[in-house]
Amino acid sequence: MPEDASPKSEKIRCDACPVMCYIADGKSGACDRYANHGGELVRLDPLTVIERGVPAVAFLDRGENAQDWDGDVIQGHRQFVTAVGAGTTYPDYKPAPFIVSQEVDGVDMVTVVTEGIFSYCGVKVKIDTDRHIGHERAIVRVDGEAIGHVMTSEYGSKMLSLGGVEHLTGGSKKEGRVTCDALLRLCNREAVTMQIDEGVELIVQAGQAPVINGEPEKLMRVGCGSATIGMFAKQWYGHVDEVVVVDDHITGVLSEHEAGRGLDMRASGIKVKGRRSTPGRYFQVAEPGTGWGGTNVQDPLTILKPADPKLAWPGLRLLMISTTGEQWAYFVLDDDLQPQPAEISPPLLAVAERIAENCEPSLCSVLFMGGAGGSLRAGVTENPVRLTRSVKDALTYVSCGGAEAYVWPGGGITVMADVMEMPTNSFGYVPTPALVAPIEFTLRASDYSALGGHSDHIQPLDTVLSPTIRKLLPNDSQPDPHARQNYRWPSRPRGRG
């Protein structure tokens, strides 16, 4: 061998997940999160710390409010070490990568941080639209693979349940890979195009408007047809003889509705199709669709029956409008009691614009949901069930990337967090496939010792901070994980006066 030749660098094995990649020097593993740097296994993303006591970021960092949440900040009054960039506890016997102590308002606190490997995970997606995207239980697909389904609709929104262990590991290898990739992109606020069986093509991106069949959605409805009647009845009164608010849920008819009766409106004789629920409220006036009010209606007159000649009259003024105010049509009955298009009056046009004004912008919301399993809890304590009990007893506060996590009732530690409240690029993956997500457990040092925590691995905060860490501003809408109100500590005994 020539004298100037150096021995070929050996690969090292990464034990951060069950894949156990062998990584050559200067290369990264399959997850792109760990690399071989001169024979040392290193985490590529920096540890992320949130510093408080400085201006907060906007709730939604988009449009005119767009802010770079990754920039360095001035010294804050209080620092919180998140699990973003921390690394994992795999294999399960290892303590969490960072167990950090600091004094907060005279109380010794400990935060245990780890990037959990979640096979039992997914996202719940809320899509602000009244348009029909697909029937409940319809399969949601990406690249032809099933990744979830349509859930029960909520008020003004459609809901999707995506991911879960059945799609990640219970189907074909391709289904698991596509599901994991879609979840990763959704959680990292990227756009994902999906198709719903017997429904629409949908583009979902957290914090952005949904795109339905190529059309960006603009407004979330102000309410159902009945609610719209109730809200705007007095503003219509005197300017029109009848108003029909077209809605897939409840179509409202003003003169029949209790709001119209309260204004002593004359019965108009205008009749709508569908099933009458209560006076002025009708179900199933049309099929679901992407037209007026989430129906398949393009011409609103198609939902009307012939007018009652005993009640209707020539010259009757009729307004038909959707629940967002985006679609409206104004008619006057002719001598044969047939609606004829007419020019809308300024007061009625103003109410249509006010309905639209009272509609919130349509957005997609993505909530990560996962269950903390054995490796996560064992990284906190040698007796994992004590951590579960501590969380249920509100002695331990759970966060994801510093964002508040809702902990579901019942057994285990099943958490849900809004990805818009978390730092950008908080999520990773492993090819098993599974998502990698940050999770933090914060509690008093005394409580940590009591639950059998890895106290010999606690390190002071200042030993964790380094020039390479990523410093972020806090999100003003999020509680401070160290705040006293997050905990149900026993009351301190009062001293004798």
Describe this structure in words.
The structure is a single chain. With 497 residues, the chain is α+β, with helices and mostly antiparallel strands. It has nine helices and 34 strands. It folds into four domains: 10-44, no CATH class; 79-120 and 373-481, no CATH class; 121-218, Elongation Factor Tu (Ef-tu), domain 3; 225-361, no CATH class. The chain has an eleven-stranded antiparallel beta sheet with strand order 16-15-14-13-10-11-12-9-26-30-29. Strands 7, 8, 27, 28, 31, 32 and 33 form a seven-stranded mixed beta sheet that branches. Strand 7 (98-104) and strand 8 (107-118) form a beta hairpin. The protein is elongated and about 90 Å long. The chain starts with 11 loop residues before the first strand and ends in a 25-residue tail after the last strand.
Residue runs with pLDDT of under 50 for 5 or more positions: 1-7, 55-63, 69-76, 493-497
The count of strands amounts to: 34
Largest sheet: 11 strands, antiparallel
- Helix segment count? 9
Helix/strand/pairing category: alpha+beta
Percent of residues in helices comes to 10-25%
